[in-house]
DNA sequence: GGGCAAATGTTGCATTTGAAACAGTTTTCG
DNA sequence: CGAAAACTGTTTCAAATGCAACATTTGCCC
């Protein structure tokens, strides 16, 4: 079988190419890693989150979170405080500088993403959206039995905010 | 905006989750990295390739190819020889051991991928296929002007085999 | 209550990765 | 012909990453 016809390969390659287009913006122009970008994204919307909420809404493991948060704190884009109720946990909050930076970056990243997506016929775009959602459900279904962090976003059922 | 609703995020997360399911097979059970897997995949189909053909059909850069090939050679899964016609180039060929290993791994990887894809309704699977192909074209269209390795597989036009 | 297991975040260490420098070969052009 | 430019694969060095150990805090169970 030709590798170009192997669907998992095609998906991985396309996803990487798409991602690279966005990293070129928030990475090169704003100095954010992918993990930092995701944390800022979450915090910009929520304002502040504790570690548990964050773990539920992110596809990052604890080491990635810890390191990305350290860097964001060094850059004064977020603050980290130990929670009084459970001193193992942390409360993450975005700073004004973090909000500003994220908003500027998001404008450009969103524009770049839209530029690519709008280069697709509307029907194809709808198909992509539908297919990705279905694949996510399929992975969850097939891997749900086991425990391992097989997939990603909070699925309807477990949690609600 | 909620990050879970941001399409680029969803695509990246789903693609990673899918990929992780397959790496769990060829990585954990057969000790192959993603790059080694891809090289073996190409060579199993072609038998042997020189560096130029390989560069065209792979989404790996020259450093990744060099390192993956070194490891595959150490494991005696491929052979590397300097080309007589142009001593800058290499000829890569899969060994019998490499073929055996790849075929066994491919059986399991393919089965795992099919298990997930077949957990999707046929219509959704078709939508995914269509959407991914369209996204690939869109990225190529938007980035084609510039030179950088923006995307992936050989598109109709440049080469033929 | 008190010790033991579980949970959480951080750190250390070895490996991997990426970008640039490098070495060898070929092509170009005067 | 011959020097310079271009091309290819490898190596080097710093940064990123993954995994396991670690330290701290909490919950459990007697």
UniProtKB/TrEMBL annotation, chains A, B:
<protein>
    <submittedName>
        <fullName>MarR family transcriptional regulator</fullName>
    </submittedName>
</protein>
<dbReference type="GO" id="GO:0006950">
    <property type="term" value="P:response to stress"/>
</dbReference>
<dbReference type="GO" id="GO:0003700">
    <property type="term" value="F:DNA-binding transcription factor activity"/>
</dbReference>
<dbReference type="Pfam" id="PF12802">
    <property type="entry name" value="MarR_2"/>
</dbReference>
<dbReference type="InterPro" id="IPR039422">
    <property type="entry name" value="MarR/SlyA-like"/>
</dbReference>
<dbReference type="InterPro" id="IPR036390">
    <property type="entry name" value="WH_DNA-bd_sf"/>
</dbReference>
<feature type="domain" description="HTH marR-type">
    <location>
        <begin position="4"/>
        <end position="144"/>
    </location>
</feature>
<dbReference type="InterPro" id="IPR000835">
    <property type="entry name" value="HTH_MarR-typ"/>
</dbReference>
<dbReference type="InterPro" id="IPR036388">
    <property type="entry name" value="WH-like_DNA-bd_sf"/>
</dbReference>
């Amino acid at each position: 079988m030709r590798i170009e016809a192997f669907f998992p390969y095609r998906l991985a390659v396309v996803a990487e190419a798409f991602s690279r287009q966005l990293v070129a913006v928030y990475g090169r122009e704003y100095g954010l890693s992918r993990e930092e970008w995701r944390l800022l994204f979450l915090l910009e919307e929520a304002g502040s989150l504790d570690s548990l909420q964050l773990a539920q809404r992110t596809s990052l493991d604890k080491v990635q979170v810890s390191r990305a948060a350290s860097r964001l704190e060094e850059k004064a884009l977020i603050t980290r405080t130990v929670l009084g109720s459970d001193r193992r946990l942390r409360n993450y909050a975005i700073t004004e500088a973090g909000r500003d930076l994220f908003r500027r970056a998001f404008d450009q990243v969103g524009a770049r993403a839209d530029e690519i997506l709008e280069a697709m016929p509307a029907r194809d775009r709808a198909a992509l959206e539908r297919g990705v959602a279905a694949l996510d459900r399929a992975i969850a279904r097939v891997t749900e039995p086991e425990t391992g962090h097989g997939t990603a976003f909070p699925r309807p059922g477990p949690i609600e905010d």
